[in-house]
Specification:
This protein is mostly beta strands. A five-stranded antiparallel β-sheet has the order 2-7-4-5-14, with no helix packed on it. Strands 10, 12, 13, 16 and 17 form a five-stranded antiparallel β-sheet that branches. It has a four-stranded antiparallel β-sheet with strand order 1-8-3-6, with no helix packed on it. A hairpin with a 2-residue loop joins β12 and β13. The protein is globular, with a radius of gyration of 20 Å. The protein starts with 9 loop residues before the first helix and ends in a 9-residue tail after the last strand.
């Protein structure tokens, strides 16, 4: 049951919920057609060159891709794990794709090459997360690719990681399988690092792009998490709102969990309970001992209406912070609080699609 930092009967219930969730998660890999080990019980240093030639990147309309990640302490006891919660990012670089800024200077993450992001627990070594990365399939290719785990340097030796890339066939899936192409939207690491959620955060967040003619479905995929704390309260324990505007259609994501003292007491959603710290407090888009949950939104209506492909499409992004006094959203004005964010559009076509490069 971990560590009873806040002794109450709930810790037993939270432990039971977590292990029930882990049992459900363990039963999901049915239909796995291919598994490629990325790293096996590897301490930080976290770089691996991996041959993906066996990965079915032309798997048709029923293929999904996922990253399964397991986290352990470097020794046999929980006290040998890191005591604080830190972010870790898994990024990939395949031939033909440019290099990106994996870390942004604060906690790790926010690169266009990012596949998954995790928050380590408070001194617990039982992490096991599965993240669906199907919309990011175009970042991969059937070649030798570089995978890299990154986190703040002083915490790197506190954890041991096992990472596996899986492809699975889902006979009853209703999605379009693997996307055949994607376009990077907005990142707080590229083209320059601009993570601080201050008055200049929203400046210049606009771009144009084209939609491939064979596209039948488009998804917005984003990883967003807020960190730090200053006199404004931003951003770990302050709600934020993130709005993507595509051709005049708004798609907004709100993280209100920081307003809930028990917002992270969600072991049924994979949060590791009963860590050696205040793990239960709600955070801004993340929780200690959990993967950062990807935001996936079908934005086809903004791009595939009759005539929508004529000319350029326009996308913009803006963030807002919560003003508790006025109970309203306001423009960001943090001093040092920051947002880690990366977003993409994934394009799907009818039937079998080849993604990446052979």
């Amino acid at each position: 049951v971990g560590y009873a930092i806040n002794p109450m009967l709930s810790i037993a219930g939270w432990a039971g919920q977590y292990w029930a969730q882990q049992a459900r998660q363990g039963s999901r890999p049915h239909g796995v057609t291919s598994s490629v080990p990325i790293m096996t019980k590897q301490a930080f240093g976290g770089v691996a060159m991996v041959n993906l030639s066996s990965l079915p990147l032309s798997g048709g309309a029923r293929t999904r891709l996922a990253i399964e990640t397991q986290l352990q302490c470097p020794g046999a006891w929980n006290v040998e794990c890191g005591i604080w919660d830190h972010m870790a990012t898994l990024a990939v670089q395949c031939p033909g794709h440019g290099a990106y800024t994996i870390g942004g200077g604060f906690e790790a993450g926010g690169s266009f090459a990012e596949l998954a992001r995790y928050a380590t627990p408070y001194r617990l070594g039982v992490g096991n997360w599965v993240t669906d990365i199907t919309p990011l399939a175009p970042l991969l290719s059937r070649s030798v690719c570089k995978f890299q785990l990154d986190m703040v340097g002083w915490a790197e030796k506190s954890w041991v990681w096992t990472v596996t890339l899986r492809a699975a066939a889902e006979p009853h899936a209703t999605s379009g399988g693997l996307p055949f192409q994607s376009v990077p939207l907005f990142s707080n690491n590229e083209p320059v690092v601009r993570q601080t959620f201050d008055r200049s955060y929203n400046v210049g967040r606009k771009l144009t792009f084209e939609v491939p003619s064979e596209t039948v479905k488009v998804e917005l995929y984003a990883l967003i998490s807020g960190h730090g704390e200053d006199s404004t309260g931003c951003c770990e324990f302050l709600p934020t709102r993130h709005t993507f505007n595509i051709n005049g259609h708004e798609f907004a994501v709100e993280f209100m969990e920081p307003s809930d003292m028990y917002g992270c007491a969600r072991p049924d959603m994979g949060v590791e309970p009963n860590g050696y710290g205040a793990w239960w407090f709600g955070r801004n888009g993340w929780c200690p001992g959990q993967r950062v949950r990807p935001i996936v939104i079908d934005v086809s209506a903004a791009l595939l209406a009759p005539g929508a492909r004529l000319g350029e499409n326009v996308a913009s992004y803006a963030g807002k912070m919560w003003n508790a006094t006025a109970s309203a959203w306001m423009d960001p004005c943090a001093e040092s609080g920051y947002i880690i964010m990366a977003s993409h559009l994934a394009f799907y076509q009818q039937g079998e699609a080849m993604v990446g490069r052979a």
